[in-house]
Known about the structure:
Blueprint: H1 2-17, E1 20-23, E2 35-38, H2 45-52, E3 57-62, H3 69-77, E4 81-83, H4 90-101, E5 105-108, H5 126-134, E6 138-145, E7 153-157, H6 171-186, H7 188-195
Parallel strand pairs: 1-7, 2-5, 2-6, 3-4, 3-5
Antiparallel strand pairs: 6-7
Helix pairs in contact: 1-2, 4-5, 5-6
Amino acid sequence: MFYRLIYSILRIIATPLFRIRVHGIEKIPENRKYIVCANHKSMIDPVFIALALDRQVHFIAKKELFEVPVLKNILKFLKAIPAQRDGKDLSVLRDSIKLIKSGKILGIFPEGTRVKEVKRENIKDGAGYIALKSKTDILTIEIISSYKPFFKTDLYIKNLVKVEDFKNLKSKDAMEKIMDETYEKMYENHKFLRKV
């Protein structure tokens, strides 16, 4: 109930304010679990992701955000998962897998924090690990935005990264390959923009 209320308010405000356009809605799986991964340049990115999907997304958020008085209550209401920035918190992996197995949607920014420079080295393999262990495909969303009011924001939903395609690889190699493909999808149109 709380999520739908916030969702409705944000849709009314953010959609016209940032001129949000969602491409590839038909690629969103219906009635099945998946992990959402997206590029990350602004604190408003979770809002864009939430508005692109019709189901509640449970994001992994850095632990420091849960120490901000008002924000921590909102994050708890939204059932976000707190994580250490160094990526060494194993409970996050367990909680994420448990959440997915309960049929809910997990949201991850694989870079772990907001980034200015696009490079594969920024991508953590945690999402690949969670995908393999929970046998869950990854739905990648590429965000292209200036993050300025009244300038357009485009969200490109990509074809699923399917864990089935990597079942014959060793776990470490599979994680890496899964995140290679996720990274390519996350920045596919960014590369085009840099060429023109």
